[in-house]
Amino acid sequence: MPVVDPDLDIYDSVAVTKAQYQWFKEQDIRFAEFHVLRDKLRWCYRRSGTNHFHECREYRQQFLAVLKEHREHGFAKPFKIPYENYKKNPDGSFDYTEFNERARQNKQNHH
C-alpha cells in the first residue's frame, strides 16, 4: 500500500509533485499486478480444465491474497498531503505566510 512520507515538505511544490507522481506510479503497479495475476489464473483455469483445483492452487492463493489486501485497504486511495504540517492560526484557518515565503525561496532556487 503506497504511503505518503509524513515528513514531506508541503511548502516545496516540486517535492509535492514528485510525491504525487510516485504515489500514482505505485498505484499503477498495484493495478498491473492485480491484472497479471488475474490473467494467469484465467489462463491456468482454461488450460487445466477439470484439474484446475490442483494445478492452479498457487495462482489462486496469490490472487486471493492480493484481492484481500485490496479489499482491506481499498483498491485505490487518493493522494493526501499531510496537512498536519501546516501551521494554523488561532481561529483554525491555515497560516499561508510561511507557504508564500518558502514558495518564493523555492522559485529562486529552481531558476
TrEMBL record:
Chief place where the protein resides: mitochondrion
GO terms for cellular component: mitochondrial inner membrane
Location of the protein in the cell: Mitochondrion inner membrane
Protein topology in the membrane: Peripheral membrane protein
Mitochondrion recorded as keyword: yes
Regions crossing the membrane: none
Protein's UniProt keywords contain 4Fe-4S: no
Keywords: Electron transport, Membrane, Mitochondrion, Mitochondrion inner membrane, Respiratory chain, Transport
Protein name in UniProt: NADH dehydrogenase [ubiquinone] 1 beta subcomplex subunit 10
Naturally occurring in which organism (per UniProt): Rhizophlyctis rosea
Lineage, opening ranks: Eukaryota, Fungi, Fungi incertae sedis, Chytridiomycota, Chytridiomycota incertae sedis
